[in-house]
Write a structure and sequence with these properties.
The complex is a heterodimer.
Chain A (H helix, E strand, L loop, with lengths): L3 E14 L3 E14 L3 E5 L6 H8 L7 E6 L2 E3 L3 H4 L3 E4 L11 H12 L4 H9 L15 H13 L5 E5 L7 H16 L3 E5 L3 H7 L2 E6 L2 E7 H7 L4 E5 L3 H10 L3 E4 L4 E4 L5 H9 L6 E5 L3 H9 L28 H4 L4
Parallel strand pairs in A: 3-8, 3-9, 6-7, 7-8
Antiparallel strand pairs in A: 1-2, 1-4, 4-5, 9-10, 11-13, 11-14, 12-13
Chain B lengths: L1 H11 L2 H23 L6 H30 L37 E2 H33 L2 H8 L3 H38 E2 L5 H32 L2 H25 L10 H10 L1 E5 L15 E5 H25 L4
Parallel strand pairs in B: 1-2
Antiparallel strand pairs in B: 3-4
Helix pairs in contact in B: 1-6, 2-4, 2-6, 4-6, 4-7, 4-8, 6-7, 7-8, 7-9, 7-10, 9-10
The chains are: A alpha/beta, B mainly alpha.
Bound molecules: adenosine-5'-triphosphate and magnesium ion.
The site of adenosine-5'-triphosphate (ATP) has 12 residues of chain A, from strand 1, strand 2 and helix 1.
Chain lengths: 337, 337
C-alpha cells in the first residue's frame, strides 16, 4: 500500500441541470497527497477544485473514479475516518443567529469532541474575544477564521482547506501561513487550495494544478518550477542593440525589450558577461529569471490571450500544455525577488 | 445520542421556534383571560334554575315521544293536537338521543368546562398542527440552506443517520411541546371552571371523549411536522413546504373540487385530504353526495356517506410515510452544494 493520505484516480463528475444541460466539472482527475505533505491544489475558477473536494468528502456523488482518504474508500468508508479529517469547503456557511462559540460547540457535541477544545481553537484562529458574538455579525474574514476553527476542532491528521485565505487580511494570511506550517510541523497533512500563488509557493512543498477538470501537472514545487526553468537571464546594458547583435553572433537566443534583453538557454550566465565584456560592452545587470508558481500556473492554464479581452472562466487551456497562440512572457513576471 | 443532544439544542435555539412558542403562549393567555373575564361562578339559584329548565326540557321530549307512541297504538292523543309527529317514533325517543339537555345548556355568562373543552382543544390542536408543520419545515429548510447540514456531514458523513436524527429530534420535541402545552391548557381552563365557572357533569365518558380527541390531535401534529420536514427536505427550502401546501390547497382542494363537481364525479369529498383530516380528528365525518340521488326519482334516497377514522388514519399515515421515505431516498443520493 502506498502512503497516500488522499488518493484520487480518474474522478469524473458531471452536473446535469434542466436548463443548462450537462456541465463537466471534473474530467478524469488524479490526485495523490502523501503523508506529511503540505499540498497546494491550484486551478483557475471553475476548474473543478471544489467539486473534487466535495466528491472526496462525500458531499457530491462522483460519476466515476476511485478515491481513498486515510486508506478508507470514499465515500463509502468515510465515516470510519471522518474524525481524523478536518475540512472546509468553499467558504462554509454558518447559522447566523448562533454565536461562534455555540456553532463550534454544537459541532463538537455532534462529533464527540470534548467541548473544552472549542476555546482552544477559537484562540488559535484569533477569535477568542469574539466567540460570544453572533456569526451574522462577523466579517468575511472572521467567518473564514471560524470555518478554519471548525476544521481544527477534531485535531485532524488531514486538513483540507478550500481557499482558506479567502477574505483574510494580510495579517490573517500570514497567521494562516504560520498555522499551516505549525500544523505541518506536527505531522498534519494539509491539502490547501488557493488563488494566492505566492502564498502557496511559500507554504507548500507539493502542488497539483488542475485545469478544466484534469490534472495538468503535479509534484514537488521545486521540480515543477525546475521543469519550467528555461535558463533565462535578464540583461541590462547601456547599448542593448549592440549587445543583442553580439549575443546573437555568439549563437545565443535573445529577445529584445525596451530597456533590457532576455537571453534564454544559457545554464551559465558567465557566458553572457564574457561574450559582452570581451567586446567592451559592460553588463550593468544580469539576473536569472526563475519561473515562479504564478508564471507556471498561467503557462499551464492559459494566460489572457489578447490584452484587453477578458478571459472567460472556461477558457483555460485543456490539459496538455499552453495553447499555441498564447505566448507567455516569463521574463518580467519571473524576476526572482 | 450526542447528535440528538446537539440537534435538540439547535432546534431550541431557533428564533422561529421561540417565536411560535411565544405566540402560542400569547394566544393561550388571551383566551384564558377573556374567558376568565366573561365568566362567573353560577349561584345556587342560577344552578337550580338551569337544572329545572333542563329537566323541563327533558320532560317535554319524553311527553312528545309518548304522544307519538300513543298515536301508533291508536289511542287518543294526550295534550295538544296539531303537533307534527314523525312516522317513526324512535326519532323522538330521548333515550336514543346523542345528548340530553343538561343544566349547563341553560347557564348564561358561565364558562362550562364540559361544553367548552372540546372546541378549545380543537383550537389548540389546529395551532399545534400549524406549529408542527412550520417548525418541521423551517428546521430542516434553514439548515439545508445555511450549510448547517453540510458542516454536520463533514463530521458525520452518514446522511441517513443525520437526517434521521433531525427528524427524530423534531418529532420528539414537537410531541413534548404539544403534550405540555395541551396539558397546561386544559388544566388552566379546568381551574377557571372551578373558580369562576362551572365544571359541568364530568363523567368517565366525557374524559374518554376528550382524551380521544387529544390523542388523535397529537398524532395529527406529529404527522404535520413530519410532512413539513419531508417536503422541505425534498425541496431544499422551507418555502418548498409552504408552497407545496398552498399549491395543493388551491389547485386540488379548491380548483379540483370545482372540476370534480362539473364532471359530476361521485363522492368528491373522498378525494380531498381535508376530509380525512376531519374524519381522523372527529372520529367520523358525514358527507352528502349530490350525485347519488340523481337517478332516484320519487322514492326515498339517502345520499350521505361517512368517512371513519380508520381509513382516514391509513390515508394520512401512508401519505406521511411516503413523503418521508422519498425525502430520505432523495437526500441519500443528492449533491449537497
Ligand atoms: N451545483 C452545480 N451545478 C452545476 N454546475 C456546477 C455545480 N457546481 C459546480 N459546477 C460547475 O463545475 C465546474 C467546477 O466548479 P468548481 O466549484 O469545482 O470550481 P473551482 O475550481 O472550485 O472554482 P473556484 O476557483 O472559482 O472556486 C464549474 O464549471 C461550475 O460551473
Ligand atoms: Mg472553489
Amino acid at each position: 500500500m502506498t502512503s497516500g493520505v488522499i488518493e484520487i484516480e480518474g474522478l469524473r463528475k458531471t452536473f446535469h441541470s434542466l436548463r443548462r444541460g450537462r456541465r463537466v466539472a471534473v474530467d478524469g482527475f488524479d490526485l495523490l497527497v502523501e503523508a506529511g505533505q503540505v499540498h497546494g491544489f491550484l486551478g483557475p475558477n471553475g476548474s473543478g477544485k471544489t467539486t473534487t473536494l466535495r466528491a472526496l468528502l462525500g458531499l457530491v456523488r462522483a460519476d466515476d473514479g476511485r478515491m481513498r482518504v486515510l486508506g478508507a474508500a470514499a465515500p463509502e468508508q468515510l465515516p470510519q475516518v471522518a474524525g481524523r479529517v478536518g475540512a472546509i469547503v468553499e467558504s462554509p456557511q454558518f447559522y447566523g443567529n448562533f454565536t461562534g462559540y455555540r456553532t463550534l460547540r454544537l459541532l463538537a457535541l455532534a462529533g464527540g469532541v470534548p467541548v473544552s477544545r472549542v476555546d482552544e481553537v477559537l484562540e488559535q484562529v484569533g477569535l477568542a474575544d469574539r466567540g460570544d458574538e453572533r456569526v451574522k455579525g462577523y466579517s468575511l474574514g472572521m467567518k473564514q477564521r471560524l470555518a478554519v476553527a471548525s476544521a481544527l476542532l477534531k485535531r485532524p491528521e488531514l486538513l483540507i482547506l478550500d481557499e482558506p485565505a479567502n477574505g483574510l487580511d494580510p495579517a490573517g494570511i500570514r497567521e494562516m501561513r504560520d498555522l499551516v506550517r505549525a500544523l505541518a510541523a506536527n505531522g498534519v497533512t494539509v491539502l490547501v487550495s488557493s488563488h494566492i500563488l505566492a502564498e502557496i509557493q511559500l507554504i507548500c512543498d507539493h502542488v497539483t494544478i488542475i485545469s478544466r477538470g484534469r490534472r495538468v501537472t503535479a509534484g514537488p514545487v521545486t521540480e515543477v518550477l525546475a521543469g519550467f526553468d528555461h535558463n533565462e537571464h535578464l540583461v541590462r546594458v547601456d547599448d542593448p542593440a549592440r549587445a543583442e547583435e553580439l549575443l546573437l553572433a555568439a549563437g545565443l537566443t535573445v529577445t529584445g525589450h525596451a530597456d533590457h534583453l532576455v537571453v534564454s538557454g544559457v545554464p551559465d550566465p558567465t557566458e553572457v558577461s564574457r561574450t559582452l565584456g570581451e567586446q567592451g560592452v559592460w553588463v550593468r545587470e544580469l539576473t536569472p529569471l526563475r519561473p515562479d508558481l504564478e508564471s507556471v500556473f498561467l503557462e499551464l492554464t492559459g494566460a489572457p490571450a489578447h490584452p484587453g479581452v477578458p478571459r472567460q472562466v472556461d477558457g483555460s487551456t485543456p490539459a496538455g500544455g499552453p495553447a499555441a497562440d498564447q505566448e507567455i512572457d516569463l521574463g518580467v513576471r519571473g524576476v526572482d525577488a | 445520542m450526542n447528535l440528538i443532544r446537539a440537534e435538540l439544542e439547535r432546534l431550541g435555539a431557533r428564533r422561529f421556534v421561540q417565536l411560535m412558542i411565544v405566540l402560542l403562549m400569547l394566544a393561550f393567555g388571551v383566551t384564558a383571560a377573556t374567558t376568565l373575564a366573561g365568566s362567573h361562578q353560577p349561584s345556587a339559584v342560577e344552578l337550580a334554575e338551569a337544572q329545572r329548565q333542563a329537566a323541563a326540557n327533558l320532560r317535554g321530549m319524553e311527553l312528545e315521544h309518548e304522544r307519538c307512541l300513543a298515536r301508533d297504538r291508536g289511542e287518543p292523543l294526550p295534550g295538544d293536537e296539531g303537533f307534527y309527529l314523525p312516522p317513526d317514533c324512535s326519532e323522538l325517543d330521548p333515550a336514543l338521543r346523542d345528548r340530553l339537555p343538561v343544566a349547563a345548556d341553560y347557564l348564561t355568562g358561565v364558562f362550562t368546562f364540559t361544553r367548552q373543552a372540546e372546541p378549545l382543544l380543537y383550537f389548540l390542536v389546529a395551532y399545534l398542527v400549524l406549529f408542527g408543520f412550520l417548525v418541521g419545515a423551517s428546521y430542516i429548510g434553514a439548515d439545508l440552506n445555511s450549510g448547517g447540514v453540510v458542516n454536520l456531514l463533514l463530521w458525520r458523513p452518514r446522511r441517513l443517520t443525520v437526517l434521521g436524527a433531525k427528524l427524530g429530534t423534531l418529532l420528539g420535541a414537537v410531541l413534548t411541546v404539544s403534550v405540555l402545552a395541551s396539558l397546561a391548557y386544559l388544566v388552566t381552563f379546568w381551574v377557571i371552571a372551578q373558580v369562576a365557572g362551572y365544571p359541568g357533569p364530568t363523567n368517565a365518558a366525557f374524559w374518554a371523549d376528550l382524551g380521544a380527541i387529544w390523542g388523535r390531535g397529537l398524532t395529527l401534529v406529529l404527522l404535520a411536522a413530519a410532512t413539513g420536514f419531508a417536503i422541505a427536505t425534498m425541496g431544499r427550502h422551507t418555502a418548498a413546504a409552504l408552497g407545496a401546501v398552498a399549491a395543493y390547497l388551491v389547485v386540488w382542494e379548491l380548483g379540483g373540487r370545482i372540476v370534480l363537481q362539473i364532471l359530476e364525479v361521485a363522492r368528491p369529498d373522498q378525494l380531498m385530504l381535508a376530509s380525512y383530516v376531519g374524519a381522523w380528528l372527529a372520529g367520523e365525518v358525514r358527507f352528502w353526495d349530490s350525485t347519488a340521488c340523481r337517478t332516484v326519482v320519487d322514492s326515498y334516497c339517502d345520499g350521505s356517506y361517512t368517512l371513519t377514522w380508520q381509513p382516514a388514519l391509513a390515508v394520512l399515515l401512508l401519505l406521511t410515510a411516503g413523503l418521508s421515505a422519498s425525502a430520505f431516498a432523495i437526500f441519500r443520493r443528492r449533491d449537497l452544494i
